[in-house]
Amino acid sequence: MEPPSPHTTADSFALSLATTPVDSRPAAGKTTRRRKLWEIPHKFHCPVIGTCFDVAELRALMKKLMHIPHGTSDFVLHTTAVGNSESRTPLAELLQKQLEKRYPQTVRRFATARDTNSLRLLWREATAAGSGIPGALWATWTHPACDAPLEHEVYADIHMIQHQIGSGARADIKMLNKLRTENQDLRQQLDKARQETSSLRHERAKDERQLNQHIIDLRAELSGRDAAIAHLQQQLEQLHAQLPELKERQQLLQRASAAEARNLLLSARANSLEAEIGRQSQRLQHTEEILNDYLMADAAATECSVTNLSKGLAGKCVLCVGGRTGAIDAYRQRVEHYGGHFIHHDGGVEESLHRIDGALSGADLVICQAGCISHNAYWRIKDQCKRTGKPCRFVRNAGLSSFERVISDACAEIT
């Protein structure tokens, strides 16, 4: 007589565990306490066991209570656990304890539902979120408010979710096969890259050997050059010994070079002094011109006083625009000598042109040094004086004598 096969033994083992009498269970919605695993309808045990336990965990739990023959398939384990859950068996109690231990927070959250509608909303929220479905399934089917319609609704939802998971698993398998193909292609590319790298490594080793040989040749050549330099140095020393006056000639040559450098330095300094003398001569000439202007101005002032110009400017405000920087104090003295008030603007050289408007508005007489101001200042002064009817004298020469004549003419007009 042949021994039974492993599959026959496993199947008979599953049947022997599943054929136990069914306990009576309370109807859904007729009790106030949560139902146990063996108290929910038997057709719901399959989704509970399949969803809440993986095969490895289920095998470990069943080994604690019974002997499992070698080679028992995962399907036999599953059907055996489902069959033992129909009544209060030791395995059902162990599974019940494990489920309560695993999902306490979800059970407490679902316990807040006081009626079937509230329980239905919690279940739909869990399925919409897509996470925590095993705990929500256990908490819903064992809840006292779970009636027959809700049981079948949950059963339909979990059935479709399992179909979707199976479809996703098939897509994952398809993607896995694609990734395997890509992985194989990448491995081929990697092997090719390794071969290329090995070839490059050999070429690099060959180049390094050639470079090392070239370095050896260069070192030999350098050694030959050092020998040649030593020989030439020896010949040079021999020449120095044959020409004892060579050292004195070299010293004289160095002294001549130093003297030539000093000569160039002195020439540059002489040129600098000549340029400074020229600048000082120009300053002297300018000072003499200012002095002559002062002398002429004094003579003109004397003449003006003789010709009965005693009243002078009579407190008038004279605006001088432009002029020489060194002659501004002289301008001021001549205006104040004739009893006037002097103000000055440089015509936009350094001062802003916007300040000239205020100076023009407060002046009684404007003297414009036309050769010492900008074009914008010239046209601005001319336009405003023409518009306001203010007297304006344009002077081409910025000397003190020209300024003195304009002041004398103004004094004569006032008198």
Written account of the structure:
With 415 residues, the chain is mostly helical. The protein is built from 14 helices and 4 strands. It is elongated.
Quick gist of this model?
The protein is mainly alpha-helical and 415 residues long.
Report the major sheet.
4 strands, parallel
Distance between the termini: 161 Å
Low-confidence stretches are: 1-29, 304-310
Helix content: 55-70%
The SS-based structural class is mainly alpha
Mean pLDDT: 79
What is Rg?
60 Å
> Given the C-alpha coordinates, what overall shape results?
elongated
Give me the strand/helix succession: HHHHHHHHHHEHEHEHEH
Chain-wise SSE layout:
Elements: H1 6-18, H2 45-52, H3 55-63, H4 74-84, H5 90-102, H6 104-110, H7 116-129, H8 133-141, H9 148-242, H10 246-306, E1 317-321, H11 328-337, E2 341-345, H12 355-362, E3 365-369, H13 375-388, E4 392-395, H14 400-414
Parallel strand pairs: 1-2, 1-3, 3-4
Helix pairs in contact: 1-4, 2-4, 3-4, 7-8, 10-14, 11-14
What distinguishing features does this structure have?
single chain; mainly alpha; 4-stranded parallel sheet; elongated; disordered N terminus
